[in-house]
């Protein structure tokens, strides 16, 4: 990784425009990481539906029947099943859980995406339901806070 950073910095000095193109290519095509066994288990008992968003088919998941509702938002290059360890705990605490795989992530359709696509999708979910709790991870936290801050203005 250190060699990559050094090479990238050198390229940036030579051609900032090319560096920008390479960086955009990298961040607009999130890597799909291998799903872990405990993640497969939690997905097996999720109720699934699909949501059409821009050019993407977004996979939406629901667990539990509780009256309190929680929204889960994963991070960049993540998937909703990354929350597999806490989903059973939230169900046990009486929550209905709603989550989704962001564009180009998990089981949602692939293509080029940017961070703002996910924030627009979060905004749709926040307008659709009232949530008692929102649990986020990594870049999902940044995108969720961005959307929520717009709603306060």
Brief rundown of the structure:
This protein has 153 residues and is α/β, with parallel strands linked by helices. It contains 6 helices and 5 strands; from the N terminus they run H-H-H-E-E-E-H-E-H-E-H. Helix 1 packs across helix 2 (16-27) and helix 5 (115-128) crosses helix 6.
What does this structure look like?
By secondary structure, the protein is an alpha/beta fold. The chain contains six helices and five strands. It has a five-stranded mixed beta sheet. α1 (2-14) packs across α2 (16-27) and α5 packs across α6 (139-152).
Fraction of helical residues: 40-55%
Spatial order of the strands in the main sheet? 1-2-4-3-5
CATH topology of the largest domain: Rossmann fold
Order of helices and strands: HHHEEEHEHEH
Q: List the domain count as a whole number.
A: 2
Name the overall outline.
elongated
- Poorly predicted residue ranges: none
For the residues shown, what is the average pLDDT? 93
CATH superfamily annotation of the largest domain: Alpha/Beta hydrolase fold, catalytic domain
Radius of gyration: 17 Å
**Biggest β-sheet, characterized?**
5 strands, mixed
Structural class, judged by helices and strands? alpha/beta
- Total beta strand runs: 5
Portion in beta strands: 15-25%
CA distance, first residue to last residue: 40 Å
